[in-house]
Automatic annotation (TrEMBL):
It comes from the Bacteria. This is Electron transfer flavoprotein small subunit. One of its GO terms (molecular function) is electron transfer activity. PANTHER family: ELECTRON TRANSFER FLAVOPROTEIN BETA-SUBUNIT, PROTEIN FIXA. It comes from Catenibacillus scindens. Coiled coil: none annotated.
Length: 263
């Protein structure tokens, strides 16, 4: 049996995001969000290993309390526990401060045999948080994992698709891996599990719960990255409906494509 912690994150669901003009950080509270797609592959990998080896799966995230919705979905997929690290002191964190905060949360939870992260998030897109967590905790890690080739109660063997080579790595527990989207197909949330876990608590940890009480290690204060400018991506093109018979539709489509200099 192994203890697994999956680090997950809510990301903006669309292109309509607000930027704080002073800090350059995204305003996440109250904005429409969804689960980071890569993290669903990490959760499914954890559930697969739990079914194979036995053990527990805990989902961990850092962010506003609205992340409870994501945690409820994780419960409905089969997670055993869910923890949110939420405090205003964590706001505005870059990769260093985010990974440090998550590492502190993992320490409070008593560590894990295996920590799983998605390869990257669709907002920050750095692919650095997972390896940085491992560095803070002093753990061996493997990134870009596309397949679990073997696993038992003491170690895990993985296939890594790197820039120019593919390699098989065997890592003893405790360790951390970040997974690719091709590693599995995430299961759909179960209605029966959703009903069964409806009253299951989502635990909240704040700065006061942390072992390290130095505020300069968290949030904007603990972020050495300087953001010179940040902007929301442009809105996607809206659908255009063309009416008429086949010839009329063809003429209209040709005119639209020509006006946009596509042809």
């Amino acid at each position: 049996m192994i203890k697994i912690i999956v680090c997950m994150k809510q990301v903006p669901a669309g292109t309509s995001v607000e930027i704080d003009p002073e800090t350059g950080a995204m305003k996440r509270l109250g904005s429409e969000s969804c689960t980071n797609p890569y993290d669903l592959f990490a959760l499914e990998t954890a559930l697969f290993l739990k079914e194979k080896l036995g053990g527990t799966v805990t989902v961990l995230t850092m962010g506003p309390l609205q992340a409870e919705e994501m945690m409820r979905d994780a419960y409905a997929m089969g997670a055993d526990d869910a923890v949110i690290l939420s405090d205003r002191k964590f706001a505005g964190a870059d990769v260093l401060a985010t990974s440090y905060t998550l590492a502190q949360g993992i320490m409070i939870l008593g560590g894990a045999d295996l920590i799983l992260c998605g390869r990257q998030t669709t907002d920050g897109d750095t692919a650095q948080v997972g390896p940085a967590i491992a560095q803070h905790l002093g753990l061996p890690h493997a990134a870009w994992v596309s397949q679990i080739t073997d696993a038992d109660d003491t170690k895990i063997q993985v296939k890594q698709d790197l820039a120019s080579v593919t390699q098989i790595s065997e890592i003893p527990y405790p360790c951390l891996i970040t997974v690719e989207k091709d590693i599995c197909v995430p299961r759909l949330p179960s209605y029966l599990l959703q009903r069964a876990t409806a009253k299951k608590p989502v635990h909240i940890l704040t700065f006061r719960d942390f072992y390290d009480q130095d505020e300069s290690h968290y949030g904007l204060a603990g972020s050495p990255t300087s953001v010179e400018s940040m902007f929301a991506p442009p809105e996607k093109e809206k659908q255009v409906y063309i009416e008429g018979n086949a010839i009329e539709k063809t003429d209209q489509l040709f005119s639209i494509l020509k006006s946009r200099k596509i042809i």
